[in-house]
Amino acid sequence: MNYYISSDIEGLTGFGHAGLTDDQILLAHMTAVAEGLASAGAGETSLTSFHGIPSGLPAHVKPVRRSDPREFDLPQLTSGHAGLLLLGFHGLYPGSWGHSYKYKNLYLNGQKCGEHTIQILLAASKGVPTVLYAGDDRSIPEAQGLVPGLTIVSTRPGQRGDEGPIDQAVLDKLRIAAAGIVGKRIAPPEIPQSLTLGVPFRTDLAAQFANELPYPTIRDGRIVSRKADNFADIYSFLMDCFDCTNRARKVHGPEPYD
């Protein structure tokens, strides 16, 4: 059985701690999960990351890098993967390190959501269940709400600040949890029949560009939304919003973040 790991960094132990590089933090946590999978007999493990892929990973790990800008999340994920493992994701602004891609958050059917909701549903649209979620405490309820019975590892409280060095106890929990999901049968979450994604742009110009996309959108101030009956259209809208944000940045330069 082959698995797929998608990693962020703000939800990993050691993030923000003096003297630790991103590669050191990523390598420690990615290796723990990969070792757990291998110990239980998993096959090849695909791995992608929002923050780069460090050298020194176990031999059975296959790094996957983005080659298509329209496939920002989970490149090369297919129905042949037995499950998706989300590693190092985080809660939303203002309490956590939070953001959702280029925005403070997204709105899905009226509820604030983060990047991990998009990835869980994107995987589900390909028939792949999310089998393990490792992230900060502030992000866990969102994941559990989508996938009841999901294997969870709480990595850190999720405050905006230094929460200490890499936690060896958390690495041990990751190994054990990853081993425990191998062969476990879990269904992908059902995707709602009607979906509305709202993107709260940081500038009026970016929102204007999004409201001019060649399909129906609804604008409420800086929030631009699209309604669709399939996740592919919703995800395409999100990618178009990225383009609108980048286009606006070429006009007005860097935009405010918090």
Topology (elements, then pairings):
Elements (H helix, E strand, L loop, with lengths): L2 E5 L14 H18 L5 E5 L11 E3 L19 E7 L16 E3 L2 E3 L1 H11 L4 E6 L4 H7 L4 E4 L13 H14 L13 E6 L3 H8 L6 E3 L2 E6 L2 H22 L6
Parallel strand pairs: 1-2, 1-4, 2-3, 4-7, 7-8
Antiparallel strand pairs: 5-6, 5-9, 9-11, 10-11
Which CATH class of the largest domain?
Alpha Beta
CATH architecture of the largest domain, by name, is 3-Layer(aba) Sandwich
What are the low-pLDDT stretches, counting only 5+ consecutive residues below 50? none
Q: What's the CATH superfamily of the largest domain, by name?
A: Dipeptide transport protein
Number of distinct beta strands: 11
Total number of domains:
2
Q: How would you sum up the global shape?
A: globular
Alpha plus pi helix count? 6
Q: If you compute it from the alpha carbons, what radius of gyration comes out, rounded to the nearest whole angstrom?
A: 18 Å
In this structure, how is the largest beta sheet organized? Answer: 6 strands, parallel
Percent of residues in helices: 25-40%
Assess the beta-strand content as a share of residues: 15-25%
Report on the architecture of this protein.
The protein is an alpha/beta fold and 258 residues long. It has two domains: 179 residues, Rossmann fold (3-Layer(aba) Sandwich); 58 residues, no CATH class. It contains six helices and eleven strands. A six-stranded parallel sheet has the order 3-2-1-4-7-8, with helices on both faces. It has a five-stranded antiparallel sheet with strand order 6-5-9-11-10. Strand 5 and strand 6 form a beta hairpin. The mean pLDDT is 95.
